[in-house]
Specification:
By secondary structure, the protein is of the alpha/beta class. 68% of the residues lie in helices and 9% in strands. It is built from 25 helices and 16 strands.
């Protein structure tokens, strides 16, 4: 990496734009950046870091205050850096985020951060020629080209104040953090974390398995009704003892259940015998009671017999009378149907309602035949109706098609003019769009001129005010000077008296040296003392300072006014801003129509082609409609000539046929209803004669007597049931008394079933309890055997998991610097210790040279105090004493030598480790004032070696002796309004 140029604007202490040409500065390979303390030397290194990475080294980045406080509000803070990396030259431009005053109104607004990368030659493979403008993409690209991060760059290229001295004195933890950033050893931290995560995961699995085994132990103890053992590790002896105890309990429960079952069986047999005796006594008593009840119901039974006999004889009469009633109902329905048929025939226009059957049949046949003839014309009538509807639609479609043809022809004629007008408007819009950028630039220029003219008046007022102040200051200074001269002259006039007042006898005169003072001078009127003269001189000096300040303010105001006048004059003649605004608005309005007008022209062209096609299709459709209309009109006219005679006085053939069918149906219905009524009247007369004869045959004098004796089916069924029930009850009672097992039974015998039932219940309860105990013992034994099998399997599976976890935990502790790791070094610390050892070797070569062979670095991997981990210790070997001592014991100058050597060694190792770009530029910003002349010579010799092979080394210091050893190419001057750079050839 080689830097070419740096340009800063309103950055740090620089209010304006300052440029540094590194190609000129690095011509000799070594240059000095010199300036007063606080002038902004380190700011140039901050600008390089900010251009590359968007951040500055050290704690200054935390302040995030990069804008110059002296800069003009309109000046943007910006850093430009040109450099070459890996053979590709590029320009980086960055601006920080900061608050700036609003251009309109009060308050501030945020100026957003920005960044850009521009390739000044051919870009690397995979990059676009146009460069990059996104901040994150620019940062990633810079890191990729340099091959190192910002932290590594600050330690390798920009060696900032105090940073590498802090690294020399840092403790193990701080040194580890810095080395980890420089050498990117995060992957080893990932390995350590992987082992820790793996150990945690394995421990969780082990604990899960242990918890499962503990749950099985608890379940075994719960199933056995026992307490779990205190030691829940693999204990087969406890499982054997539990199984043996449960087996003994199961055997004892089985014996008790057997004895209880025998006792319950005996009680149940006694209860069965008692129940049988009680049942025979109950049956004997019930049979005797049933016979007594049957004797009491005997008279009622005879009445039931008589009622049932009369009802059965009346059944034929009831059936015949029921047929007569049905015929009367049917006759009434037939009579009403005949009346309704007469009404329908009258409505249908039939006149001879009293005609005989033959006439009615002939009239029905004639009407039916006429309806059949009309049915043949119904299809023609339907087709005629459809044809008329189609003809109407054809007429409407003819009119519509003709109107469409006329409309399309008119639109086609008007389209050329519309296309022409749209094309002219599109040309005007395009012309306005082309003028838009020029008008915007013109407006911006006129706006700037207007602002300058507004500022010109303020500048003129400031010049007038400065002139007035200057005049007043000149007058005041002149008056103070005259007063001072007057006071001095008056003091000189009274100087003899002033000297005489200080003489004493025997003292030498300060003028003549005589010890005699014969005539002392007397004070003159208006004499002035030394204090009054000093006050007058001070007043004159103050007035002179005010005059100088007024002169500087007057010159600055005149310079501002002249600059404004030159800028206004350079702009040429001024145009009217309002006229430009009008032209810009009109052009913008026309330009906005460019896209709509372009689409309109395209649409009109497409519409013209579409209308032509539509017009051709519309004309064809119109011709087709007219041909179809003419042919269909002829067909309708011919069919109408056939249908008019057939419809007669009706609207159409269908209505006339419906009327004929209605008349035929009315005549037919009248004929049928009249015949049905006459037939039912004859059947009713014959049925009434049959009912009377059936009553006489059944033994009744009148039909009414037979109907009174009749009973419905439900009553007859009740009579049969009551008679049969009484007979069955008597037969059952006599059969029960005749049974052999009741012959020797005394009906007065008493049996106590409650006492026997209680004894049986107690025996069954005891037996059930003993069986429940047996079942519980069997269940416990069965559950314990199953759980014991699972528990032994779980113990067997747990052993390899515990062994694996023990190995993994031990290895994790070693990797993380614990356990058997006697040095308390983690894997990451071990890797960093190896890198630090390389750094110590590289730094020793330079430290030994600069300290004239006295000091060298010694890497230490010993543990720290209180057993803290080691591996990152760095001490110094003093060759004068032959002892190793901490780096913190070095003096200020020795610390600087050690720090510089360590920083350079660290830079070499980091550069080799990252494999990044070749580092052709190096900056050292550190205090050289702690070195004596000889040591400074050694340091300069070491720095001379760094620039071998075309390398450029820049030193930042205010030490005056360095100006005599190194040509000062870049000087920073400190001013009240900001610093400025001065390049010295």
């Amino acid at each position: 990496m080689r830097l070419h140029s740096l340009e800063v604007t309103a950055f740090g202490p620089y209010p304006g734009t300052e440029t540094v040409d590194f190609d000129v500065l690095g011509a000799d390979g070594l240059f000095l950046l010199h300036g007063e303390t606080g002038a902004g030397k380190t700011t140039l290194l901050d600008a390089i870091a900010f251009a590359l990475f968007g951040k500055v080294p050290g704690v200054r980045n935390d302040a995030r205050r990069l804008r110059c406080d002296y800069a003009d509000n309109d000046t943007l803070t910006e850093v430009k850096l040109e450099l070459t990396v890996q053979g590709h030259r590029l320009r980086l431009i960055r601006g920080p985020e900061y608050e700036r005053p609003k251009k309109r109104g009060d308050g501030t607004t945020k100026q957003q951060a920005r960044a850009s990368l521009t390739w000044l030659g051919d870009p690397p493979g995979g990059y676009e020629r146009d460069g990059l403008i996104r901040i994150d993409e620019v940062s990633r690209t810079v890191e990729r080209l340099l091959g190192m991060s910002a932290e590594q760059f600050f330690q390798v290229v920009l060696l900032p104040q105090g940073e590498f001295a802090r690294f020399l004195r840092a403790d193990t933890q701080e040194r580890e953090q810095l080395l980890e950033k420089l050498f990117s050893t995060y992957r080893f931290a990932d390995v350590e974390r992987w082992f820790r995560d793996r150990r945690t995961e394995c421990f969780r699995d082990l604990e899960s398995r242990r918890a499962g085994a503990m749950r099985l132990v608890a379940r075994v103890a719960q199933a056995a009704g026992d307490e779990p053992p205190e030691d829940q590790s693999a204990d087969g002896e406890w499982l054997d003892l539990v199984a043996a105890r449960l087996g003994e309990a199961e055997t004892a429960a089985r014996e008790k259940a057997k004895l209880a079952g025998v006792a319950a069986t005996t009680a149940e047999q006694e209860m069965t015998r008692a129940r049988e005796l009680a049942d025979r006594v109950r049956r004997l008593r019930n049979a005797r009671a049933e016979l007594a009840e049957c004797e009491r119901m005997r008279p009622q039974q005879q009445e039931w017999f008589a009622e049932r006999a009369k009802a059965r004889r009346a059944v034929p009469v009831v059936v015949a009378n029921r047929g007569a009633a049905q015929l009367r109902v049917e006759l009434e329905h037939a009579t009403r149907a005949e009346e309704e048929a007469i009404v329908l025939a009258t409505k249908a226009g039939f006149k001879r309602l009293d005609a005989d059957e033959a006439h009615l049949r002939a009239e029905s046949a004639r009407l039916t035949e006429e309806a059949g003839g009309l049915a043949q014309l119904l299809e023609d009538a339907k087709q005629q109706k459809k044809a008329k509807l189609r003809l109407t639609k054809l007429i409407d479609a003819d009119w519509a098609a003709e109107e469409k043809v006329t409309s399309l022809e008119a639109e086609l004629v008007a389209l050329p003019e519309q296309i022409k007008a749209a094309a002219e408007e599109l040309a005007q819009a395009r012309e306005a769009a082309a003028r838009l950028d020029g008008l915007k630039a013109k407006k911006a220029e006129l706006t700037q001129r207007a602002q300058l003219r507004e500022r010109l008046g303020d500048a003129e007022e400031r010049v007038k005010s400065a002139e007035a102040v200057l005049t007043k200051a000149v007058d005041a200074h002149q008056q103070a000077r005259d007063h001072s001269l007057t006071i001095r002259a008056r003091r000189l006039d009274g100087m003899a008296a002033e000297l005489a007042s200080g003489l004493a006898d025997g003292d030498a005169c300060p003028v003549c040296g005589s010890a005699d003072h014969p005539a002392l001078a007397s004070p003159v009127p208006g004499a002035v003392s030394e204090a009054e003269e000093a006050a007058a001189v001070a007043m004159e000096q103050d007035a002179q300072n005010e005059r100088a300040a007024a002169e500087r303010a007057h010159h600055a105001a005149i310079a501002d006014l002249t600059a404004l006048q030159e800028r206004i004059a350079a702009g040429g003649e001024s145009s009217d801003l309002s006229e430009v605004d009008k032209l810009l608005a009109a052009a913008a309005e026309l330009a906005a129509k460019r896209e709509p007008q372009s689409r309109l022209v395209g649409e009109l062209d497409r519409r013209s082609a579409s209308i032509s096609a539509e017009l051709s299709a519309a004309k064809q459709e119109l011709a087709s409609l007219r041909t179809e209309r003419e042919q269909l009109g002829k067909t309708v006219e011919m069919r109408q000539k056939r249908l008019d005679p057939a419809r007669g006085e009706y609207a159409d053939v269908r209505l006339r046929r419906e009327h004929v069918l209605l008349s035929a149906a009315a005549v037919t219905e009248l004929l049928s209803a009249r015949g049905q009524r006459e037939q039912l009247s004859k059947r009713l007369t014959a049925q009434q004669t049959e009912v009377h004869e059936a009553a006489i045959s059944a033994g009744f004098a009148e039909v009414a007597d037979a109907l009174e004796a009749a009973r419905d089916e439900l009553r007859l069924a009740d009579l049969d049931r009551m008679i049969s029930s009484l007979e069955n009850k008597e037969a059952a009672a006599r059969a029960a008394l005749a049974e052999p097992d009741l012959a020797d039974i005394d009906p007065e015998t008493s049996v106590d079933l409650e006492e026997l039932a209680a004894s049986l219940a107690r025996a069954r309860e005891v037996a059930d309890a003993e069986v429940a105990v047996l079942r519980e013992a069997e269940r416990r034994s069965r559950d314990v055997r199953a759980l014991a099998t699972r528990l032994r399997a779980e113990w067997a599976a747990l052993q390899p998991v515990e062994a694996e976890y023990a190995d993994l935990a031990a290895l994790t502790d070693v990797v993380n610097g614990r356990g058997q790791n006697s040095r308390r070094m983690s894997l990451r610390s071990y890797v960093l210790a190896a890198r630090l050892e390389e750094v110590a070797v590289a730094a020793t070569a330079r430290l030994s040279r600069m300290s004239q062979g006295r000091y060298s670095f010694v890497h230490s991997d010993a543990r720290g105090s209180h057993g803290t981990r080691g591996g990152l210790g760095l001490d110094v070997l003093d060759d004068y004493s032959g002892k190793i001592r901490p780096a913190k014991t070095l003096s200020g100058g020795e610390s600087f030598l050690a720090s510089l050597a360590l920083a350079l060694g660290l830079a070499d190792v980091v550069a080799a480790e990252t494999g990044g770009a070749l580092l052709d530029t190096l900056f050292v910003d550190e205090g050289f004032g702690t070195l004596d002349a000889d040591t400074l010579d050694e340091v300069m010799d070491t720095l001379d070696e760094l620039r071998a092979g075309g390398r450029v080394v820049g030193l930042v210091s205010h030490v005056e002796e360095l100006r005599q050893r190194i040509p000062v190419r870049l000087r920073v001057r400190k001013a009240r309004s900001g610093s400025r750079l001065e390049i010295i050839a």
